[in-house]
Amino acid sequence: MVGDSSVPRRVRLPARVVGARSPCAKVSPVNVGILGGTGPLGRGLALRLAAAGTAVTVGSRDPARAAAVAAEIVAAWPDRTLAIAGAGNPAAADADVVVMATPWEAAVPTVAEIAGHLRGKVVVCVANALVREGSDMLALIPPRGSVAASVAAAAPDALVAAAGHHLPAHALAKLDRPLVADVLVCSDHRVATETTMALVARIPGLRPLDAGGLASAAAIEAFTAVLVGLNIRYRAHSTLGLSGLDGNSRVPARTEVPLP
Amino acid sequence: MVGDSSVPRRVRLPARVVGARSPCAKVSPVNVGILGGTGPLGRGLALRLAAAGTAVTVGSRDPARAAAVAAEIVAAWPDRTLAIAGAGNPAAADADVVVMATPWEAAVPTVAEIAGHLRGKVVVCVANALVREGSDMLALIPPRGSVAASVAAAAPDALVAAAGHHLPAHALAKLDRPLVADVLVCSDHRVATETTMALVARIPGLRPLDAGGLASAAAIEAFTAVLVGLNIRYRAHSTLGLSGLDGNSRVPARTEVPLP
């Protein structure tokens, strides 16, 4: 299990969110709720975040199912200390930071129902609108350009970020295998970008990159279809990695990747 | 200079295009015309393709300017044998394979004017519709989803592919520096995908990847804005590299990268 010391100093969680009193204060693990967290991506994120010392509530429309999935994840890794609980989506939305991991069709109805829980809160949207057409994956373009923009419109008082779309769920689930990927983070709220980047940086092997405003979510979400299509076509498990950024002091550090 | 032997056997140019008589015939260098080839990406592609033994015609609305740019590229690398000529766009479009490298606003008018030259021909669209908004790059979404789809509509008898959007022009221009990148290729015509992948594979360090039908061009083009935005934000020169594909026998090989 990776403790607090693995959180790079430069991508510290904002004081407002974690209750730290100064920029030099130690970062405390933040509590994360994952709405629709019983799907493959939600499970994988719950596992990796919990393994990095973060308390996670897996949310679902069905609280009993959420509890069962949480117990299942914890039971699969008996040697790890994983703080994962299950709850209904509204209860999961009471966490400090909320991750939207429902299927894309459910994102807006889910958020609209609990918009009151999300006021002033960082909401990280990881949903993609994808559809398989023959042997191709097609990115559907929501009317506002992205699922994240739709979520932001449905919960106008939330601080919405988009991130994690290109993470392979199957690889997240293999905690004993190293995972190396770049994670693009975008938001119109600085605190949401910084909080999300800090959360990502907790997971060993991931490098958060600031991809600008929420308008970038349209291209980031749509590009997922290209990556999934490559995986289908080549029977591979591709992940995003950008070269040309290494060695640049402006780029957040990648946390150490543990070997199996 | 990299000769024919560097062309991987598995990504051979289709017989129809290069005039080979059987699947085992040796691949001949194909002649490439680059419309709007006087811009940074066009120049870089001309240089790298010519260095790989391909005859290139740099096209421009102004034939004299095209000739001057071609001469300038050749003069910059006196130790190399570079077959680069300049011509007007219609003459450049008479090449075996045509690359569309004009600014995006000029792509459709340019193609519409010379659609007759493009009949039955592979046309590789590398144009992106991008605009800078403050510190962000924004991808403009053309009415048909991508510049490539607009080009295909303007030249319905051409075999349009989209590729090369994520290649950094500055890196292409540095022939003495290794360049390692993945190049996503998409098209609705199998021969266009194969021809484009074979051309890409000629350039050392590049790995062509089949990214599906031309519908993928929308996400591929838009994603360029994200990469350019990262470069601005981090003062870096990022290029696309996908992990998880290496070692998969279905993935085309990357040609050897020469050291400086």
Q: For the report, how would you describe the main beta sheet of chain A?
A: 8 strands, mixed
Q: Kindly report the average pLDDT value of chain A.
A: 87
Number of helices of chain A: 9
**Helix residue percentage of chain A:** 25-40%
Uncertain segments of chain A are 1-29
Structural class computed from helices and strand pairing of chain A: alpha/beta
Q: How many strands of chain A?
A: 11
Strand content of chain A: 15-25%
- Quaternary organisation: homodimer
Terminal CA distance of chain A reads 12 Å
Largest interface: A-B, 47 and 47 residues
Order of strands across the main sheet of chain A: 3-2-1-4-5-8-9-10
Summarize the structure.
Two copies of one chain form a homodimer. Chain A is an alpha/beta fold and 260 residues long.
What labels describe this entry?
homodimer; 260 residues; alpha/beta; eight-stranded mixed sheet; two-stranded antiparallel sheet; 33% helix; globular; disordered N terminus
Walk me through what this model shows.
By secondary structure, chain A is of the alpha/beta class. Helices cover 33% and strands 21% of the residues of chain A. Chain A contains 9 helices and 11 strands. Chain A has helices spanning 15-18, 40-51, 63-76, 89-92, 104-113, 147-154, 169-172, 190-202, 217-234; strands at residues 31-35, 55-60, 84-88, 97-100, 122-125, 130-133, 136-139, 159-163, 181-187, 206-210, 239-243. Chain A has an 8-stranded mixed β-sheet with strand order 3-2-1-4-5-8-9-10, sandwiched between helices. The first copy, chain A, has a two-stranded antiparallel ribbon with strand order 6-7. In chain A, helix 2 links the parallel strand 1 and strand 2 (55-60). In chain A, helix 5 packs parallel to helix 6 (147-154). The longest helix of chain A is centred in the C-terminal third of the chain and has 18 residues, at 217-234. Mean pLDDT of chain A is 87; it is low at 1-29. The interface between A and B is large, with 47 and 47 residues.
